[in-house]
Amino acid sequence: MNMMTKISQTGSNLSAPSRSNGEGPKVLRAGFIPLVDASVLIAAAEFGFAKKEGLTLDLVKDVSWANVRDRLAFRQFDIAHMLSPMPVASMLGLGSNPSPTIAPFSLGRGGNAITLSIRLFERMCEVSGISETAGALENAQALAKVLQVIKERGEPLPTLGMTYPFSSHNYEFRYWLAAGGIDPDRDVKLIVVPPPLTSDALAAGAIDGFCVGAPWNMVASGRGVGRIVAAKQDIWPSAPEKVIGMRPEWAESHPETVSRLIVALDAAARWCDDAENHDALAEALADPRFIAAPVDIIRHVLAGEFSLDAKGNRRVIADYFTFHRDFANYPRPNHALWIYSQMIRWGQTTFSEAGLNSAKRAYRPDLYRKALGIGPDDSDIGLEGDREGDRFMDGHVFDPSNMPAYVEKFAVRSALASHFDSHEI
What we know:
Blueprint: H1 3-10, E1 26-32, H2 39-46, H3 49-52, E2 55-61, H4 65-73, E3 79-83, H5 85-91, E4 102-106, E5 109-110, E6 112-117, H6 118-128, H7 136-153, E7 159-162, H8 168-179, E8 189-192, H9 198-204, E9 209-213, H10 216-222, E10 226-231, H11 232-235, E11 242-246, H12 248-253, H13 255-273, H14 278-286, H15 295-302, E12 305-307, E13 314-316, E14 321-322, H16 333-345, H17 353-362, H18 365-372, H19 403-408
Parallel strand pairs: 1-2, 1-3, 7-8, 7-9
Antiparallel strand pairs: 3-11, 4-11, 5-14, 6-9, 6-10, 12-13
Helix pairs in contact: 2-13, 5-17, 6-7, 7-8, 9-10, 13-18, 14-15, 16-17
Protein name: CmpA/NrtA family ABC transporter substrate-binding protein
Keywords: Cell inner membrane, Cell membrane, Membrane, Transport
Pfam families: NMT1_2
């Protein structure tokens, strides 16, 4: 296989910084969850990008995001594949073990979807008359009608799985539900289910739907137990997904290593974006050491080719994964602030200027720019969802300069979100 030749042709032309502080070659222990959005990290380890920068990535597959969080905090990991809200939550002091964490690199955009049980989706079709080709908002509105029937009949509310309370999945699931007029805290029951277990939980009837990253939505639809009803791009195309997390004191004491890591990840991300490399990437990801899922499903996921269910309904989502293009790896403070707004919206925290500043500090574009010497031309802070092709599904525009007003605009939000705290978090 001429993979290394391909790497040299498509990899980054950027050279790593000189070894000015004598850190030398490093072995970095990196935790990850078996998801396609770990592609950049896995490719950096498997296809020579880390080695080129004098680094060895010792990848450790974990079972839950809470484990990843704790093992990074307890110094069992040097870096970690993390949910984009996890560093924000840590800097706000939220969660059971809020050890400070920063994100100097994003692992790309896309990858999530929402899947409901076949039984629940068929009931949506019966009650609301939606078609097999209904869009994300129509599906949410159809679910709202079913929930009204369920409540009238005194039936148990559906149980829906997401991966972690401070996760893109939680906020995107809630955003989708609320856009359809559903209160996520009153009309359904949201629980945490580790990503690799979602398909089995749906098949067993333990949950009625889930929001998770690839490939587990396609695994469920391929098994005939689930129907994909929305994708991340339907909710907000630019929504942040996964990041590389690290402890701030570790980054400060290993500046050269951090820069070399970012250079390696940037080259790997560029390689992952090249469709010519997707066969090789899919084979690597399918390995039992990593995702341990069928290679054909992973290949289709990388191409954005979805089997929505076992009936043959299909959908192609352009740029379902963007690993490098358009600065997909840039850790935008705006994204951290939108995450903060959703934490406020759903009563996980309250607004304060101190909280605003803490959320911004979770994402570190300065480390990205230091390593690569580049970054977006536009300002880090500005409106989101105001451009064609990058709209929120409910039409709202995010203005980080007036967070309380933004949250108050939502008709569906936690009652706690109506009480903004002026005290510091």
